[in-house]
Amino acid sequence: MAGWEVFSADFLPADWRQGRFVGRVALADGPSPVLVVDGTVYDMAGVVPTVSDLLAHRLFDPAGGERLGAIETLDWLSPIDLQCVKAAGVTFAVSTLERVIEERARGDAGAAAAIRDRLSAHVGGDLRAVVPGSAEAATLKDKLIADGMWSQYLEVAIGPDAEIFTKAPVLSAVGFGAMIGVRSDSTWNNPEPEIVLVVDADGEVVGATLGNDVNLRDFEGRSALLLGKAKDNNAACAIGPLIRLFDGDFTLDDVRAAAVDLTIEGMDGYRLTGSSSMAQISRDPAELVRQALSEHHYPDGFALFLGTMFAPTQDRDAPGRGFTHKEGDIVTISSERLGTLVNKVTSAKAAPAWSFGIGDLMRNLAARGLLAPRPVLSETVN
Predict the structure, then answer these.
(1) Which CATH superfamily is domain 9-91+162-367 in?
(2) Domain locations in the chain as residue ranges
(3) pTM, entire model
(4) What pLDDT digit, counting tens, does each position of 149-164 carry?
(5) What are phi and psi of 199, to 5 degrees?
């Protein structure tokens, strides 16, 4: 995709001037939360210092913000800051089957094709129709156990409890145009194009964006206990381009009906495309948020990856070896109402080190005088 290194309105939805968006930009003195309203970008740091605060106070009106330059002139970051980054796994039938295949192949891509055929013959049709936690799900579980095909992945796919895990530390996510990293010792991995819900400190979903929940199929396939190594690596979480706020024209129903498209373009001429339909998700997004909240409280809110049905199986090199990333791959994730997220693949070792943490942010905000006590903010809800 020519020109992707420079962010522009081309990467936002066609109706972006009618919607309201939240993001973060790197300014000369540090990162600032911004609002994009009627096509204008406003620096909101003088009103609230973080995106987390902006969402908590529902400050979706640019009053008090400072106008910034054209969207193309700004250095865009991941649109979240203090939010915890959570993820839901195994939420689509197709990706469920691929997780089971990874487990049974023990991380060996060459063994995947035969296992895929056998498993699909057993459960392919049934799994797409079953409601998680239902009586039908329990019956299917008994059948699969009897056939010797049960898996811990099927447990979270059709059982009562969703898989919810912490994807990345606070402030570690990269944004539009950044390098994304896979571990240098991984030989079987893939992008995971997903919609990401943004939840405020009160547990309310306030908007949505796009994300790449980069996955190492060989690590997780060897053992689900290696999930942390498979998921949480330097530059392995991309979110962006901006958070689209819910309003009268964009709601959770738009997320439920969305399509998420993926294109991978390799320096070797390889090209892969795919699409996920959120209508095929096994658990409703609101239910996934409820399970992520559990009995815990997130005082700075959280971002929740909703999972993907896309698990690339198209061979890239040798027949039967499936897909894996190569250095320099361009990954483009897009959805009509959310825009386009573009990143370039490298190794987690070669990607720029994550060096700006919570302590750095607090020191930066304090030095800019943005942590001084403020009067009670009037809340503006759009």
Answers:
(1) Fumarylacetoacetase-like, C-terminal domain (3.90.850.10)
(2) 9-91+162-367, 93-158
(3) 0.88
(4) 677 777 777 788 889 9
(5) -115, 135
